[in-house]
Amino acid sequence: MKKYLVGLTGGIGSGKTTVANGFLTHGITLVDADIVAREVVEPGSPGLEQIRTHFGNSVINGDGTLNRGLLREIVFANPQHREWLNNLLHPMIRTRMLELVEKANSPYVILIAPLLFENGLDRLVNRTLVVDISPEKQIARTMARDKVSETQVNNIIASQMSREDRLAKADDIIDNNGDVAGIEDKVAELHSLYMTLSQSQ
Fold first, then answer.
1. Which of 62, 80, 105 corresponds to the end of one domain?
2. Could you list the residue ranges that cross the membrane (predicted)?
3. Among 21, 144, 172, 178, which residue's beta carbon has the most beta carbons within 10 A?
4. What's the predicted TM-score (pTM) here?
5. Does the annotation place 25 within a ligand binding site?
6. Looking at 70, 105, 140, which one is the last position of a domain?
7. For 42-73, what is each residue's pLDDT tens digit?
């Protein structure tokens, strides 16, 4: 039977991890696109070797790991390089995520993907859940967490889908402007819904 899949997304600093961990306490398997994206470029992986061949040894650290900062600078400055990298990595990430989904033992699976809509991953899921937060809180949280400037945060926000478009595409929304207890209640409510939906598919 095909797994029932819920795509969890939200802008940077919106609280996706907090919400995802809420589902984890209900015994639900999480598949995180960011973790998979790091996996497919680990030392010795075909992904990393193709990146080395394309960009040269300068993007590989002394310990054999990928120099993410340098690669990010290169691809952000050059749309062709960015397209090449996306064409290489997105299929690898998608394949690996679907393998993990199939191995999951829970009745449904939460797929955590910051760029769920932007990368077309919403086509893989049965339902979408957006974690929403005010832009002011989003900026403040990200600056505190990642120790970055407001300008950097605004650049990241600008590269993501707008809040309005994201909310318009959502099947379900968790408002993260309040306290943690409110999130736990909403997660429990959605967990019941997803259990019902996964059993009736």
1. 105
2. none
3. 172
4. 0.88
5. no
6. 105
7. 999 999 999 999 999 999 999 999 999 899 88
